[in-house]
Amino acid sequence: MSLKGGMRGMNWDEWKEREKMYACWLCNFPYIGNKQLHRLSEICGGPEGVYLASTEIWGGVLSPEQVTRLKEYTARWPPGKSYDRMREQGIRIVTVKDTEYPKRLKDISDAPYGLFIRGTFPEENVPAVAVIGARECSEYGKYVAKQLGAVLGRYHITVISGMARGIDCISQESALEAGGSSVGVLGCGVDICYPAQNRELYNRLARTGAVLSSYPLGTPALPQNFPPRNRIVSGLADVVVVVEARVKSGTLITVDMALEQGREVYVVPGRVTDRLSDGCNRLLRQGAGALLDMEEFVEEVWELYQRKGGAACRGILQGAAASDTMTARGLHLPSELAVVYQALDFSPRSAEEIREKLPEKCREQQIVSCLMRLCVEKLAIQISPGRFCRTGEESYE
Amino acid sequence: MFSTIFSGALLGVRAYLVSVEVDISRGLPAFYMVGSLSMEVRESRERVTVALKNVGLDIPPSRVTVNLSPADRRKEGTAFDLPIAVGILEASCIIPQGSAEGVLFLGELGLNGELKSARGVLPVVQEAAASGIKECIVPKANEREGAVIPGVTVRGASHILEIIHFLRAEKNEREAILQAVWVDTKQFFESERNMNGEKTNFCEVTGQDMARRAAEIAAAGFHNLLMVGPPGAGKSMIAKRIPGILPALTLEESLEVTSIVSVAGLMEEGEALVTERPFRSPHHTISQPALIGGNAVPRPGMISLAHRGVLFLDELPEFQRTVLDALRQPIEDRRVNIARAGGNVTYPSDFMLVCAMNPCPCGYYPDRNRCHCTEAQVRRYMGRVSGPILDRIDLCVELQPVDFFSLREKTGSESSEEIRKRVSKARQRQKERFAGTNYRFNGDIEASVIEKYCDLGMEEQHCMEQLYHSLQLSARAYHRILRVARTIADLEEAEQINTEHIMEASFYRPSLEYWGY
Predict the structure, then answer these.
(1) Are A362 and A297 in the same domain?
(2) DSSP 8-class letter at B37
(3) pTM of the entire structure?
């Protein structure tokens, strides 16, 4: 059956559905590169065309080995079967040719041919910010990621991230918490929750945001999958924020890709003694933007977005700002607690270190009980038997 | 001819009297030994006959039968050599009939007739005294150990000939041959006690105020303690000094400890009493029988040797999980029952558990500048310590890496004596509180009676409620905090637990989030 014949016999929606079925078949084939996908589809005029094309045409793009594998694969998973299986799991496929395909991603070189999406992709007429950083992050990183996610969520800026442990998942969680939307880009099949402990976030994203991946369903999370995944993370965003990164890290790969794609890069500065902030501070030196104030940053993101020709819908902004002032409440702590609270930091400090910082000497019993009181008030957390951090729930002046 | 000699055998840390009956009669030459004997007791036939031959005594070929009564209890050890030899001597009329009456013998013989040290002299002599025996002859090496028991004459001999000489002599000449050993237990105990505590002292530990405080609380309430910290922070150093801040052993405690050491055969030659609090620190490769006690022939394990003292487990996650899990019941019951084919014995195991561990495989977590361990690695490392063991630990404290300045600064640390004074006071309060009950220390308080002993006022109850919710405590953790708060209140000499005490106690709780439970 030729492509035209197919079109004549059915309406637009049905044809679209057929195309998707074949796209699903094609994109689920694991032994094919992204460039090859693009070329094959171009030559044959769409995924259905690829399916109907002769092996010679396949051979024009693919190696003989790939052709045999594709044949075997097709025999095992006829298009209808794999498509039905996918739909049962609530997963959609979007190809470059589709209108739902994220616009920002279309512009990047090496845009993934097909994306598997679970959930609904958020509105594209708002800015999107990728928040990335170390998996093994410090309390400081956790705090910034949490604040940043919340502010972005409040101002309806989409948070893009990789759903990994640490910075990724914290920023995404707090964005959803604040009522924002978020997109998780996976380095494995979209039907797999990796890392498994983020199951809750995964489910939430599937409900209120989107989880997407360019990898065939069932692909395990292999290390080599992550750098290509990172290009999607930065590609989906207007601005990339690095919260914490060591000098050698996957986060910096994402930054390189973001720069290639022409995305703005912002960095959260850290202390020069923190190894976890080395990567960030280096980027600063190389000219990355510094994220110093969350609200200011949000302003800048909006400006940038509008300059790029984004639709102005800043009406939301005013409302958000108003609700923001409502949440920040002043703290009235007894003086001894206030002193101890001020000695706390986002990096873990031991009770002994805190005592050193106090203006007057006091016994360890007193320090300890003040610290525990702060924990009860949720102003501090005991992250290990002897060390405490600020939680940063409130801004205390 | 027939003779009966007294000796003793061990059952757990107690002893029972054994009468060694020897019969020599005419007939085909033979040597029979009966009475449920183990291999080493049977071998005593060879040692005794050869030793007697080598000291120049001729036993004419005859039919010798030795019975160790009560014959249904299994007997072990080499201490029956001497009573068997004396029995043979009496039955063959080499020493006068009745000369060994009312005397208990204990000791191993060498082939040259020399007497070697024996295991468990203290409990045997104790039992002898209790059953009315007036005189004991033991190897020279163990004489002081036996002599601490009042009401019984203990003589030490180094060779079988001395004993033969002694038994042949008239009653009034005997004292000149083998002198009775006297140890003035009370005075000896006091003088020994004063000599202790000089070796290690808390003033050598610089910095680590939190850990020092935790050790003090643990010592005062007999709580189990866990120290987490990077390598070289001083975990073992503090652990070694904990026995020094515990109140000194009382005489009864000292006798208990000495019995166990004596049963384990670990008494030093000429040592009379163990007067120092035991401190046992087994290597982490220790096997379960070595820790708990046991073997085919039950012997006290490390936990019993640490009775009334400190059992220190360094590198806690490296211990085999099954070994650690076996600790649960002895910690609860304060004694351990070992049932084997060879017998069923109970050893006391009332020890304070002190553990130390690194926070992660590399040792520097949560210092992210130095530690590259992933969250999962840290969790896995922590997870090696089983939850049930953690449940039995009341106090958990983290040590900080020692910096250069605190190493240089040698002043300002309290000495063990000062801490011990406070601990003793707190213990005195506990003694009064628990008078007439099964409990002795705050660490023993069970959940069912916690409200009776850890009574809270309105404000304190509110405080506990807040803690319970904000720290997401479990019921166990809640009780732990109360127990520790009680001890802190005792240390501060407060009748009532106040919120400060509770807050401090909650700081030392092994927190659930940290352990990933």
Answers:
(1) no
(2) B
(3) 0.76
